[in-house]
Amino acid sequence: MKQQLMDRFEIQDLLVRYCHALDRRDWPVFEQLFSEDANLDYTAFGGPRADAKAMAAYLAAATAGLRGTQHTVSTTLIEFDGDDQARARSAAQVMMISGPEAGPDQVLFVGLWYQDRLRRTAQGWRLCERVQERSWMHNLPAVSA
């Protein structure tokens, strides 16, 4: 029981580190959150299905035109499959600020679910699969919706 509580804390910390890595645009840290064989599926919002390195490159390009982002994750349900495997489902909200540098802010909001598979590695818990599931969007340009 004590080990499972420690594992839950480490997994929750990993999910929060993901948000911070995105908002800081710290792509090396982003890549370290995933196992070497990780598969990320961001097709629900028009993104690719890729490994962590390719996804980091995609996200770097996708966020380059944004003036700021804030990713949050909450209501995470974690279920263990033995000692070294787990599944998690988390609600996430993403706020993005776009618009011309000198113009008014356009604040965009996205709600989604992350469906994750995690694995304990020598470096600690890592995401080995992450799938985005679209929930809601507000104030996105028609081309994005």
TrEMBL record:
Gene3D superfamilies (alphabetical): 3.10.450.50
Pfam families referenced in this protein's UniProt entry, alphabetically: SnoaL_4
Domain SnoaL-like: 4-130
InterPro entries with a match to the protein in the record: NTF2-like_dom_sf, SnoaL-like
Protein name per Swiss-Prot or TrEMBL: Nuclear transport factor 2 family protein
Species annotation: Stagnimonas aquatica
